[in-house]
From TrEMBL:
Keyword rRNA processing: no
Pfam families in the record: Oxidored_molyb (PF00174)
Lineage of the species this protein comes from: Bacteria, Pseudomonadati, Pseudomonadota, Gammaproteobacteria, Pseudomonadales
Statement: the UniProt record of this protein carries the keyword DNA-binding: no
Keywords: Signal
Organism per entry: Pseudomonas solani
InterPro entries cross-referenced by the UniProt entry: OxRdtase_Mopterin-bd_dom, OxRdtase_Mopterin-bd_sf
Annotated signal peptide: 1-21
Record-given protein name: Oxidoreductase molybdopterin-binding domain-containing protein
Length: 180
């Protein structure tokens, strides 16, 4: 093999963990399945949503939001999800405290039951196109999500690569602020 090819392979091997973290595939996914979603952290309203609660909120089609923002539409058929906007859930929970600038220091962590997380800044959710594509999903192809995806999951359809901020077995949404 020539040196150039060897270097290319070495570089790819170095970069791949950034985009393709080792995917966790449990033997029995049902042990990780969550049936409710909790809003935790620095919130005024520590809400808990069942899947039925989520279904009563305004719902969005993943394929439509991802197409609108030019996001990751690879395998769009597979990604035929339906769910609610993360920013609308966070607005319902609302930030605790009376600092009018508190929201500017706020960030949101989506936690899974296997300790996987995805991280968003509040302004990213509220004030950029990325936020238009961040959905808490409960259905795929018009059916309940299968256990291996989690009955409740989070997807970020406007990301360049959807994998890293796809959270299966979504358990809670934590709202926090960077200390002053
Ligand atoms: N709870 C949980 N979600 C997870 C992971 C994980 O280990 N645990 N792996 C992530 C990774 S690294 C990828 S690439 C995607 C793969 O799923 P997808 O191809 O259906 O997006 O799931 C993501 N979601
Ligand atoms: Mo991944």
């Amino acid at each position: 093999m020539d040196l150039r090819l060897n270097l290319r392979i070495a570089l790819l091997a170095l970069l791949s963990p950034v985009l393709h973290a080792a995917e966790f595939v449990p033997d029995d996914p049902s042990t990780y399945v969550t049936e409710t979603l909790e809003m935790t952290g620095e919130v005024q309203n520590p809400l808990r949503f069942t899947i039925d609660d989520l279904k009563r909120l305004p719902s969005y089609d993943y394929k439509a939001v991802a197409a609108a923002c030019g996001g990751d539409v690879a395998n769009a058929e597979y990604k035929d999800y339906r769910g609610v906007l993360l920013r609308e859930l966070v607005q319902k929970a609302a930030l605790a405290g009376d600092d009018p600038k508190g929201w500017k220091r706020a960030y949101v962590i989506a936690h899974a039951s296997d300790a996987y997380i995805a991280l968003f800044s509040w302004n990213e959710l509220l004030n950029t196109q990325i936020g238009d594509g961040v959905l808490v999903v409960y259905a795929q192809h018009g059916e309940a999500l299968p256990p291996e995806s989690g009955r409740i999951a989070l997807v970020s359809g406007c990301d360049r690569h959807a994998g890293p901020r796809h959270v299966k077995w979504l358990k809670s949404i934590e709202l926090k602020t960077v200390p002053q």
